[in-house]
Amino acid sequence: MAASTLAVDFGTSNSAAAFLDGTGLRRLAIEPQAETLPTAVFFPAGGGRMRIGNAAAEALIAGDDGRYMRALKSVLGTALFHEPRLIGGRRQTLSDIVTAFLSALKARAEAQAGQTFRHVLSGRPVRFHTSDPERDASAEADLRACYLAAGFDEVRFLFEPEAAALASHGLGRAGEAGLIVDIGGGTSDFTVYRAEPAGLRILASHGIRLGGTDFDHAVSMTHAMPLLGHGGTLRRSFGEGLLPVPNAIYAELATWAKIPFVYAPETRRAVADMVRHAVDPGALTRLAAVIEQQLGHELAFAVEAGKIAANGGAALGRIDMGYIEPKLSAPIGRASLDAALDGFRQRLQEAMRTTLRLADIAPDRIASVILVGGSSLMNMITAEAGAACPKAELHRSEAFTAVVDGLALATGTGFAAPA
Ligand SMILES: Nc1ncnc2c1ncn2[C@@H]1O[C@H](COP(=O)(O)OP(=O)(O)OP(=O)(O)O)[C@@H](O)[C@H]1O
Ligand SMILES: [Mg+2]
């Protein structure tokens, strides 16, 4: 399958492409001067050309009129993926948009490689949806359909952490068992392997739907949304007493994939009504401004930047919200970040324990833990992975390209599962 097979890591946050070119593994610069392409699109209002990757974010930041979308992978397997909507002046589904993104990625990869690719070996999370096998199968079927519509004739999948194991098991101790911990934007994926003289042996893989976008959600709900009125109270239209401000709008605004849907006219009306009944109208007026001026993605980017800065050790950083109201910002530091993410620790521990159980291996028999994925740079992940495998040495592989490297290697070995 090697020569005309393109390896694609279609990530929730970032995508990458690579192939085996006869001399070896070659990552493709599918973004100018970069080996990763943000999985994001921008449709100018009124029907201009779709932009992808960094150009999409630039259009958003420049304030161009149009629709920006990110984290589309998390919608695979849901009804929302097939609902037609008016986006960029025409009716299209999210499935059409993912197809257009993959088709542009294919064209860029072919231009870089100087050849066409008819086959694709794509990564997929072990579970797109944690405890719903039917929805999980639909998600893979949705993604397969998008690759086919984008012009590939043959589509195969490999679990993302197994691809990462192929690329990076050499970092660990030869002959012994290791655990790949791949925490990205949307999912956490785990593989237990053994590096044997005859080659890599996969003992078990497991995954849950939890990633950096969930961390962003938690940080947003605890740090930013209170400044927009989350947790506040409303006066009743009729009768005495107070009501809590409804949670749903804040939860959507804090979810990357749902932000574009918060701008619907009925939400605007609901927020205007909330402002009229608010005990603290100032905070809800900010929420109204975010919805009216479509500032949800600016806020999400600021929250993500605040998360990364606080994780990096900033004792007290700030989430900039000055585009909503001059000088507005939410404080964030190591302690408040830890508190916001604390609830995820147990799910991560359970997932790692389950992976080891599936592999029938005791935690202290894991000699190496190899961390991949952007969110594996979170201190919480390093701490939890270390706690799950107390005797293991921790190694970092290429956070953003280990999966695509492994996929490309797999095109040459026939390692991929049958289509
Ligand atoms: N320095 C950093 N510290 C902490 N988190 C980071 C850092 N850099 C990126 N991230 C987070 O990593 C995530 C993206 O990682 P990555 O590109 O590996 O995900 P992905 O492969 O697109 O997603 P998935 O594999 O889950 O579909 C984002 O949530 C981002 O906020
Ligand atoms: Mg990934």
What keywords describe this structure?
419 residues; alpha+beta; Nucleotidyltransferase, domain 5; 6-stranded mixed sheet; 5-stranded mixed sheet; 13 helices; 38% helix; binds adenosine-5'-triphosphate; binds magnesium ion
Ordered list of secondary-structure elements with their pairings:
Blueprint: E1 5-9, E2 14-20, E3 25-27, E4 37-38, E5 40-44, E6 51-52, H1 54-61, E7 66-70, E8 85-87, E9 90-92, H2 94-113, E10 119-124, H3 133-149, E11 154-159, H4 160-168, E12 177-183, E13 188-196, E14 199-208, H5 212-224, E15 233-235, E16 242-244, H6 248-253, H7 265-277, H8 281-292, H9 296-311, E17 317-320, E18 329-332, H10 334-341, H11 345-359, E19 366-372, H12 379-388, E20 393-396, H13 402-413
Helix content: 25-40%
Low-confidence stretches: none
**Tally of discrete structural domains:** 3
Spell out the CATH superfamily of the largest domain.
ATPase, nucleotide binding domain
CATH class of the largest domain: Alpha Beta
The molecules bound to the chains, other than polymers, are:
adenosine-5'-triphosphate, magnesium ion
Give the structural class: alpha+beta
Q: Which oligomeric form is depicted? A: single chain
Largest sheet: 6 strands, mixed
CATH architecture of the largest domain: 2-Layer Sandwich
What is the fold-level CATH name, i.e. the topology of the largest domain? Nucleotidyltransferase, domain 5
Would you count the extended β strands for me?
20
Give the terminus-to-terminus CA distance.
Answer: 12 Å
Shape: globular
| Alpha plus pi helix count | 13
Overall mean pLDDT stands at 95
Rg estimate, integer Å = 22 Å
What amount of the residues lies in strands? 15-25%
